[in-house]
Design brief:
single chain, 243 residues, alpha+beta, 9-stranded mixed beta sheet, 12 strands, globular
Length: 243
């Protein structure tokens, strides 16, 4: 798991780079007001902990390497070729658009809420002692067309659990993209020590329920009339899988 940045100066540096995805070393130092020795020391610690990388004269968020080793996998289908990789901060606007397009029918309330949160925070990855989240994306010709997100409450009694959302733009469905995204997200979650993964959707989202069941998920519980969608009360179906 990504380490929480407790030292205030190092947290300021990390969040500055995270918001920009990539920034010149000297630009970051000058903007944040550190002297060269002090800044160099903090950056060294952040690089040691895997939170930042140095690429030439630039500082880059290093946590992408922790999320699946930074590996980009390529898949060639009969009709569509695509790649799956850890999301980058620079994917934020494209990812937001994909999530909103994919859930515009109101059938994935959790994913819709995730989109609202990252739109407000303008940060994809989070690890702050309250909650952590990571994203992987599917791309076609470098354009984001799908995602999988794993979010985890930073509570000891829930440390073995996480919540997952996954989705693909309607025009790119039924090409195996969603299955590969789900596999990548669960693989990462298993490597990080999670044991139980959840996904909750409205009962009207029969396609999502069938998709998860096909991949070994089980319906764990139903909360009656949990959602109100377009003025109608809709049950919540709570799906889960054990890793």
């Amino acid at each position: 798991m990504i380490q929480q940045v407790e030292h205030k100066d190092r947290r300021d540096i990390y969040e500055y780079v995270q918001e920009r995805d990539r920034v010149a070393y000297e630009t970051a130092r000058a903007d944040l007001g550190f002297d060269p020795t002090q800044f160099g020391h903090h950056v060294t610690i952040l690089r040691r902990d895997g939170l930042l990388r140095r690429e030439g004269d630039d500082l880059v968020v290093g946590i992408e390497d922790d999320f699946g080793g930074g590996v980009e996998e390529e898949f060639a289908g009969e009709d569509v070729s695509f790649s799956i990789r850890p999301a980058r901060q620079s994917d934020l606007s494209g990812l937001l658009g994909v999530i909103r397009d994919a859930v515009e029918d109101g059938n994935d309330v959790v994913a819709e809420n995730i989109a609202d949160i990252i739109d407000e925070e303008q940060v994809l990855f989070r690890q702050d002692g309250v909650k952590s989240r990571v994203f992987f994306v599917a791309t076609v010709n470098d354009d984001v067309v799908g995602w999988v997100n794993i979010s985890h409450p930073e509570l000891e009694k829930l440390s073995h659990t996480a919540e997952l959302t996954v989705g693909v733009l309607p025009e790119y469905r039924r090409h195996g993209i969603g299955s590969h995204l789900l596999e990548r997200g669960l693989e990462w979650a298993g490597e990080e020590g999670y044991e139980r993964i959840y996904n909750s959707v409205p009962s009207t989202n029969e396609e999502a329920i069938a998709f998860l069941e096909t991949h070994g998920w089980e319906e764990e519980a139903t909360r009656e009339d949990h959602y109100r969608i377009d003025g109608e009360y809709v049950d919540e179906v709570m799906m889960a899988v054990t890793l």
